[in-house]
Every structure is written in C-alpha cells, then in structure tokens.
Amino acid sequence: MVGIKNREDLRNAINGHQLARCLQVIAELGIADLLVDGPKSPEYLARATQTQEDALFRLLRSAVSAGVFVYDEEGCFRLNEPAQWLCQDQDGSLRAMAVLAGQQHFPAWAHLPESIRTGRPAFDLLHGMSVWDYRSTRVGAGETFDAAMSALAATFAGAVIAAYDFSGAHCVVDVGGGHGAFLVALLQRYTHLSGVLFDQAPAVARFSERLDCGLRERGAGVAGDFLAPLPAMGDIYVLQRVLHDWDEGMAIRILVNCRAAMKAGQKVLVVERVMDATAPTTEAALADLLMLVMNGGRERTGADFRRLLEASGLRLERVIPTQSVLSIVEGCVV
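^ that's the sequence the OP posted. Answer follows.
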C-alpha cells in the first residue's frame, strides 16, 4: 500500500471506501462471472442481476475508471486482467473475499469508533453476537467466510511450502484449515506425507470433496473444535491465520490444546503476519484493526508470539520469513 505523501493522497485515502464498496457490490452481483463467455451489454447485465440498468451502468463505469473491466466501442462491458480475479472459478479468485468484506467487514468498520472507545469488537456491538455465532447462524455467512479463507490459503500455500522443509515429517495436522487448500497443496508436494484437516464439519466435508483419487489414501478430515482437545495424530501441527482471530487468552488455549496432542520433538507452525513492533506496514496495521473490529483478535510481533508459546508450554525455535506477508513461527515442546 502506497504511503500518504500530500493532500491529494490524503483526500484519496479518505474516500477510498467508495471504490472498495463498488467492487464489493460488483462481486456480490457476480458481474465478472457473467462476462466469462464474452462482452455483455448493460441491458443484459441488469436483467441477469435484477438491477436497474442506468444505476448498474454507473456502478460499472466507476470500476472501469479505476481499471477494472473495459467498456468497449459496442457499448458492452468485458473482462480485463484485474476483473478476472473477481470470477468465482479463477484460481486465486478474490470474489469471496470481496463479498466477505462487503457483507461482514464493511458494516463493522462503520462502527470503528465504538471499538476505539471500548476496546471491544464493533461487530459484536452491531449485531449483538460474536462473528462466530453470526457465521454459524446466518444463512451463507459461514460459507462466504470459508470460501474467502480457502482462497487466501491457496494463495499463500506455495510460499509457506517453499519456505519450510516438511521432508522429515510423517503426518501434518492442519488445525482450522478451512477447505484444506493448504493441506492439499502440501500433500501434492510431499508424496510421502499423510495429512489431517481438523475443522468444523462443513469445512471437512468440502475438504473431502477436494481429494482426488491420488490423495484419498493420505488425506483425512476430522470434524471438531480447536477450542477442545485435538487429535494426537501428527508430528507437525499447522495453525495458519488462526491465532490472529483471538485475544491472548483464547490464543493460549488453542496452543495449549496443540501442546497436549504433541510429543517430544514435534512441532507447531504458527503461520501469521509477524508485525514490526515499531514500524509495521500499513497493510499489517490495518489488518490488526480489522481483527479488533471483527473479533477482538490482533496481529502480533515476534515478542508476542514468543510470549504466547511460552505460556502454552512451548518454545519458540525460529521465525522463518516466506515470499508473502506471512511468516512461519516454529514452536516445539519444551
């Protein structure tokens, strides 16, 4: 994210929510998917999305002005390279993330002042329930979150796998691994490994669907809650983008559950942003605020992770950077 250097940059940042909201609504409407087989007129798109034609045209024109989609000489909209990432079936798709941001994050961000005043998640204050209860009770909310997290896991999988040597492991347990995008990529890379996805039942069901014939003998899903005891099945336990969702007490509880399932010499890999304590990037600082607004979690520094591991009966061995915003915090049994 480019830093703010002058008045014009500041003005653009103040109004940045406008373009973000346009893209979120376009993702919710599924516009990009309607253009996969070729350009379409505003009339066609309005009919397909049950929207008012002139209003939809103005929405899409705003996106075109920012470089997303093309409006051609025939008066039709078509995909360009940025717009392709809003297609649902595109590898690395951002559509689910855009829908998640629009439907769940955006309303909570509007109540940021309440979080700053109270230190509590704005989401809870807005909806009268935690984000986890909301996602388990509101139709489609949990599925949207899982799809967005699965897409992110697939994006980061290559960088994490390239940065860490799993060749000495026999079984990897992916704790809270969503649809299993990371675990599938790991099993494809290391053909001697077996892997277990440990998550809630709907995510485990989607993971089972992802396993082709070559992976079914080495991959398994176990339904459960990582706030309860974990299966003692692995020699490496992976927590990818899990702990940042939780405050210190709950993060320690999750790590204690990992520790209880582990034996001497076994590892836990906490895959998260590791914030610079004094000068974090804007992306990291905003991600940290998102955790406050949504669920009371936080992004953490290296010292924070050391403290969490020690409080859980684990020792921080090393912090391994990856070719992404994430690092691998390796812990072992004391």
